[in-house]
Structures are given as structure tokens and as C-alpha cells.
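Morning. Coffee machine broken again, so started the prediction first thing and wrote up yesterday's gels while waiting. Chain of 196 residues, entered below exactly as on the submission form.
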Amino acid sequence: MPKKLKPKKEDASNDAMAKLATNPAMNSAFVLQRYTPVPGETDLIDLYASLHDSMQNINKNDTHTFEAMLTGQAHALESIFTKLTCLAIEQTQLRHLESYLRLALKAQSQSRATIEALLNIRNPKVIYANQANIAQGNQQINNNYTTTKPEKIKPAENELLDPMEATHEKRLDRGAQEAPIRINTTVATMETIDRT
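Came back before lunch.
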């Protein structure tokens, strides 16, 4: 095996380019630069810096930017729903009406999901597990989960009685005994049959 030589300047620049290509802020900046609604060309480095700051805020548990973003997206999706619904009303052919309404309802559904995500960020659900089964590895199975504070569950007493331990007071009450009733008393017995 050849000895490892000191990295050349080309290798160092290749490493820097590889790190830059896998950087989430840089990848998002590339996409934003192409799709941004702001007129004129936006500087890629400025976009990268803004996204990097926003990503650092998440590490500090500051979600205000993302809450504002989700609120804006919910309003934008609602306006798409409204526009597509108005276009659907103007259609004279059923297939066009159906296409516009299908797209409108998809936008409405996405708006609802965005609002739900925003509410989950603001008020996360807490799950209290009554029983946790820990499996081998990294799997955890929670049974009987609730989203409210669990009540103390008292185990039910066994209602079956052991005949040896049961006293007269503990025996089951079968009710009052009744006299047997004879049914079809007029039926006569059958004749004997000669089986030979």
C-alpha cells in the first residue's frame, strides 16, 4: 500500500465542495434561488446565510419562523382552494368541473393539515402509557395509551368461589326452588316391541 501523502490543495477544495453540496442550508438556498417569487436575482450566499440562521434557531428551540411559515402556507393554500373552486363553478363540462374541484379539495386538505401541524407545534400531545413492553433492540411498544392523565386502575377481584373455601353466606343464590311441572300427562306409554 502506498503511503498517504499530504492532501493537495485540489483535495482540500474537493472536500470543501463535498461538504457544501451536502449542506442542507446550501441545498435549500439553490432551490429558493430558482423558485423565489422576489423579482430579480437573489444572491445565493445571502440565501444560505439566512437559511443557516433559521436552522440555528431550531437548535435553540425557537420555532417562531416556522410557525409564521406554516401560517402563511395555510393562508396560501386556502386562497388556492378558493380560486380553484371559483374556476370549477364556471365550467360547463363535467370532467373540467371534476378536475378543478378535485384540485381544490386537495388544497383544502393540505391547508387543514398545515393548520394541524401548526397546532401540534404550539400544543404538543402528551401520551401517558399505562403499560410499556420493551422489546429487544430499539423497539418500544406502548399499550393502552391515552392523551389524558391516567386513572388508577384497581384490579377486579376474582368472583369465582372455591367450593372448599365458600361459606354458606358466600354461596351463590340460585333462587327459590319450585315444584317440578309434569308436561303431557295424557300421553300413554308405548307398547312393547318384539325385536326378534
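Strands lie at 128-134, 140-146. Going to sketch it on the whiteboard this afternoon.
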